[in-house]
Amino acid sequence: MDAGLEKVVAAETVLSDVDGANGRLIIRGKDVEDLAQAFDFEATAHHLWSGFFEGMPSAAELKAALGEARVAAFERLKPDFARLAGLPEVEALRAALALAPDGHDLGSAIDLVATTAVASGAIARLKAGAAPLAPDAHAGHGADLLRMIRGEAPLPEEAKALDAYLVTISDHGLNASTFVARSVASTRAGLGSAVIAALSALKGPLHGGAPGPVLDMLDGIGTAERAEGWIREALNRGERLMGFGHRVYRTRDPRADVLKRVVASLPASSGRLALAQALEGRILQRLAAEKPDRKLDTNVEYYTAILLEALGVSRGLFTAMFASGRVTGWIAHAREQLATNRLVRPASVYVGRKPASSVAA
Length: 361
Prior knowledge:
Blueprint: E1 16-19, E2 24-27, E3 30-31, H1 32-38, H2 41-49, H3 59-77, H4 81-85, H5 89-98, H6 106-127, H7 141-150, H8 156-168, H9 176-186, H10 191-202, H11 211-221, H12 227-236, H13 254-263, H14 270-290, H15 300-310, H16 318-340
Antiparallel strand pairs: 1-2, 2-3
């Protein structure tokens, strides 16, 4: 038995390959570094979805369809803004997705992506005590998401940075939320059900909830001069250093390097980035000395936190932002699983008490 299922092959996929030993991530035939540099959000969605839907439009047509879908999603959610305002961010996003169509077709997929972005933007504004902004159907998806969150159009380099983030996290093997999405899809429930289930898995602090605590850690350390003592005390208390170590990677997470380069292009990150870079080296040295039997390197969460903070995204919205990128991958996996026409039904081994035999000896 493998309780964590690491050695259990549960799917064949064309979508992504996580090479943990060599620190390489391939997303549908492209290294993540190349994908993040050459593709925007809409092109990545088209890249992931091609072959899984009938009548797949061009990337440009998909961009237009997403713009129209954001406008429609805003109108659908508008009557529920007051209710969403009273919920925590992830619960509000789940409630919003529950109002979206739950079909299997491309239209449902587009609507789910649009709803995730529109709801994230509305939730950010509502939590700030401001009115949600209607989408701009002609803007790029990432740029419009950032505008709906902050209330003003982003600079071109900011929109490009967010697109790179959304692309980088679009898919990552059979992680917990993606496995849940595939399991739900195997029952022939709709794409909306698969996405909501995946989001519920992403909410867990062992999966998608770590970028916020990275900033809490940096706040706690404060300055590079305090780093050694703070790190030593944290490890002595048995605490996990957020943004380091990964279930699969035994070397550096390639996504961390992509986002490190991206965040360096943002002026708003300069002070925090300098601190993060100074601390990264010291933390890695300490981890290597304290835990020589474990390969603990920087993961995607470390520079995700720096990037999203530099873009003006609140910590409470970090999980929703992750979902805004990963939703394209969840949908692709759901469609791929559906095509196998096989219900996911793993076996278990009963280790509980057994009733006494009713047959007389």
